[in-house]
Each structure stands twice: as C-alpha cells, then as structure tokens.
Amino acid sequence: MAPLNDLQTAFLASLPTFDSTNTSFHAASCHCGAIQYTVTLSPPLPLQKVGSCNCTICTKNGYLLLYPRRQDVVIHQGEEALKSHSFGQKQLLHRFCGACGSSVWHDPRLKTLGEEMPDLLGLNVRMLKGVKLEELDIVAFDGYGNYPFIGDSAHLQEVTTP
Length: 162
Ligand SMILES: [Zn+2]
Prior knowledge:
- The protein is α+β, with helices and mostly antiparallel strands and about 160 residues long.
- It contains three helices and ten strands.
- The chain has helices at about 5-15, 55-60, 145, and strands at about 25-30, 35-40, 50-55, 65, 75, 80-85, 95, 105, 120-125, 135-140.
- It has a five-stranded antiparallel β-sheet, with no helix packed on it.
- The chain is globular.
- Zinc ion binds near residues 31, 99, 100 and 102.
C-alpha cells in the first residue's frame, strides 16, 4: 500500500474531530424520496466547512460535501435504489438514486488505501431536509487539480467531432 501523499494527509487533517457531546442530527433524502437516511454531524452543521469541489463529478452533479463517518449515516429506506458510477482510477463511487438521479453521496472507499484510514462518506449536503445553502460555510476545494484518488477525468475534457 502506497504511503499517503501530502494532499491526502492534508485532507485528513482538515476533517473535524467527532465529539458526541456536540452534534446535530439531520434527516435526508433524494428528490423522489425513495432513499431516506439520517446523519449525525459533529460539530453541528453550522460549524462545518462544506466543500465545494471543482472535480468533474462534483461539478456535473452539484456536490456540496461533508465527510461524516460511515457509522453516523443510517439508511432507513431505499438502499436498493442506490446506483453507482465510478471513473478514472475507480477509487471513488458516486452514488445516486436510480429513480430520480439525485447525487446522494460519494464513497471514497478510503479503507482501500490502508486500515488506518477513516471510513467516511462524502455526503451531499443538498440532500439534507430543510437545508439552507445560504447559511452554510462553503469552502472551495481543488479536487480536480490535486487529488489523485478522485481519479483522472481527462476524458470529460475531450472534444469529439460528430
Ligand atoms: Zn430518488
């Protein structure tokens, strides 16, 4: 297993520490409601940095990202409706509703990079019920330029002649 590069290390260092005494709890769903889940965030949502990433998958799908632990995301309904798309190095699984197409989260599958890695989901904050985007602390994130585990999406930049 390759050691983490500086960017991966910086990403991990940017993640908040989970404190069970300082959380917020949210219901979430895709647009059609087939997929229903809840998430516990720590620190609470107003104190979270929400990532607006410029990589191809986030740009195409409008991801605004939080990284809760997988154990803090509970699917109550519709797991079977989740479809997957991966690309580039196939590290990351983009997960979306097969009925309505909502981009619910991406699974970075960090455990495949080493047992010491945290088990996180890249949750699309847009799925949280009642979320007010204008109240979020949204920070730009250069996934396209920097993160090799997001994958090489150069094919999306190609121009094909009909
Ligand atoms: Zn749906």
